[in-house]
């Protein structure tokens, strides 16, 4: 192995304290792990509101954090309306004055001392929200999803807070939506059964009309024939009224199925998307103690939380609007459908009553044969002249022998049997 060169004489002659002092005098900046996230410098001028505020909260700063950053941008404030700065952006100066080495309280006083407009110098964090979905955030999101379906007693026993989830009115609205779906499902099934029964009833009326029409055609008496035909036409008219009722009420099923199979599932899907966004926002709303040091990882989580909050607010607004429209459609639609159903049924029964009232043809006088109705004590069965003649012929053929047979066989003896002559 080669022998290392000896130290120069000037280095050997220097005391060790001088070497330590020489390296201590060098001013080295601590290099932060930026996680590959670029920053873009810039400045923005904000007009303060009536309360002398610009609408941001700041964190970090001396003496534990190398930078001072924006924690949250409040809604409906000058900073939120401007939209330039966001959570996670680093603040580097106020009105041209550097804030390096200052605490967040000192920086807040610097901003408050400025009246009217204030200029904020910043380093814009070009963050990708997908990088903020760490394993911890995913597990917290799963925790909120599990707690959502727990009872209060179980959650309290496990030490899990359910306050923000239990007070969510949209979850209660989802339960009301399920009950409305069951109501529409029952109405649909009942309407189907009713229409099927009315169809069978109309076919029965048609059969009645056909039977009475045949009777009227075969009736020899003109008055009775006309009465039967008129009664048959009345039943056929009732059958037409039933078909018209079916055609009027059938679109009711289409409307109910549209509400049941399209509107309600679409709203249910929107609420599920809203719950997913809410769980993500709640997971990001719990800062992790090991990243709460103002580094890039925590600032990335702050940015993700702000964007998740914006999505949560927008999704909640959309769900509320959709639920409101669905409730209005439910109230208007159910009233319209029931009015159409009641008016159609009323018209059907009124028309049937009018037709049967005009077809009041009873009693009907019909010409019958003289032997059709017998009131004597010995007449137990219905007989007519032709049947009596046929029965007489059968009795004659079976009980009395012919004259030729009597002559051939000889006269009867005392016992009633035939004897030879």
UniProtKB/TrEMBL annotation:
CDD domains: BAR_PICK1, PDZ_PICK1-like. Pfam families: Arfaptin (PF06456), PDZ (PF00595). The gene is PICK1. PROSITE patterns: AH, PDZ. Residues 165-361 form the AH domain. It is a lipid-anchor; Peripheral membrane protein. It comes from the Eukaryota. Probable adapter protein that bind to and organize the subcellular localization of a variety of membrane proteins containing some PDZ recognition sequence. Involved in the clustering of various receptors, possibly by acting at the receptor internalization level. Plays a role in synaptic plasticity by regulating the trafficking and internalization of AMPA receptors. May be regulated upon PRKCA activation. May regulate ASIC1/ASIC3 channel. It comes from Sus scrofa. Monomer and homodimer. Interacts with CXADR. Interacts presynaptically with the glutamate receptors GRIA2, GRIA3, GRIK3, isoform 3 of GRIA4, isoform A of GRM4, GRM7 and GRM8; with NAPA and NAPB; and with BTG2. The interaction with NAPA and NAPB disrupts the interaction with GRIA2, conducting to the internalization of GRIA2. SMART domains: Arfaptin (SM01015), PDZ (SM00228). One of its GO terms (cellular component) is postsynaptic density. GO terms for molecular function: actin binding; metal ion binding; protein domain specific binding. This is PRKCA-binding protein. Residues 43-126 form the PDZ domain. Its main location: cytoplasm. Residues 381-397 have a biased composition (Acidic residues). Gene3D superfamilies: 2.30.42.10, Arfaptin homology (AH) domain/BAR domain. Residues 375-421 are annotated as: Disordered. Keywords: Actin-binding, Calcium, Cytoplasm, Cytoskeleton, Lipoprotein, Membrane, Metal-binding, Palmitate, Phosphoprotein, Synapse, Synaptosome, Zinc. It is found in: Cytoplasm, Cytoskeleton; Cytoplasm, Perinuclear region; Membrane; Postsynaptic density. PANTHER family: ARFAPTIN-RELATED (PTHR12141), PRKCA-BINDING PROTEIN (PTHR12141:SF1).
């Amino acid at each position: 192995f080669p022998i290392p060169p000896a130290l120069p004489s000037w280095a050997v002659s220097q005391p060790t304290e001088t070497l330590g002092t020489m390296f201590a005098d060098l001013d080295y900046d601590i290099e932060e792990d930026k996680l590959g996230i670029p920053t873009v410098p810039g400045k923005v001028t904000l007009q303060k509101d009536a309360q002398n505020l610009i609408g941001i909260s700041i964190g970090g700063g001396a003496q534990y954090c190398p930078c001072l950053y924006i924690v949250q941008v409040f809604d409906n404030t000058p900073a939120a309306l401007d939209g330039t700065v966001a959570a996670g952006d680093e603040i580097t100066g106020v009105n041209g004055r550097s804030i390096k080495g200052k605490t967040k309280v000192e920086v807040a006083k610097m901003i408050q001392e400025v009246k009217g407009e204030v200029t904020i110098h910043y380093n814009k964090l070009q963050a990708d929200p997908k990088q903020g979905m760490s394993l911890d955030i995913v597990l917290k999101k799963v925790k909120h999803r599990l707690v959502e379906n727990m009872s209060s007693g179980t959650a309290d026993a496990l030490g899990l807070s359910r306050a923000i989830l239990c007070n969510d009115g949209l979850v209660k609205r989802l339960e009301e939506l399920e009950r409305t779906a069951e109501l529409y499902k029952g109405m649909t099934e009942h309407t189907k059964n009713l229409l099927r029964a009315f169809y069978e009833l109309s076919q029965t009326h048609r059969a009645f009309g056909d039977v009475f029409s045949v009777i009227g055609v075969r009736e020899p008496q003109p008055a009775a024939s006309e009465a039967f035909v008129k009664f048959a036409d009345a039943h056929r008219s009732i059958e037409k009224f039933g078909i018209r009722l079916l055609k009027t009420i059938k679109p009711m099923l289409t409307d109910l199925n549209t509400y049941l199979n399209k509107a309600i599932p679409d709203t249910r899907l929107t609420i599920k998307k809203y719950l997913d966004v809410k769980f993500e926002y709640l997971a990001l709303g719990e800062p992790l103690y090991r990243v709460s040091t103002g580094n890039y990882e925590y600032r990335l989580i702050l940015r993700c939380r702000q964007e998740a909050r914006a999505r949560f607010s927008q999704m909640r607004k959309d769900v509320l609007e959709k639920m409101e429209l669905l409730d209005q459609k439910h109230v208007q639609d159910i009233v319209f459908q029931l009015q159409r159903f009641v008016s159609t049924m009323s018209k059907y029964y009124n028309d049937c009553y009018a037709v049967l009232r005009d077809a009041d043809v009873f009693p009907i006088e019909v010409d019958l044969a003289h032997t059709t109705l017998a009131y004597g004590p010995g007449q137990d069965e219905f007989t007519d002249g032709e049947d009596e003649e046929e029965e007489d012929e059968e009795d004659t053929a079976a009980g009395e022998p012919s004259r030729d047979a009597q002559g051939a066989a000889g006269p009867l003896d005392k016992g009633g049997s035939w004897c030879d002559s």
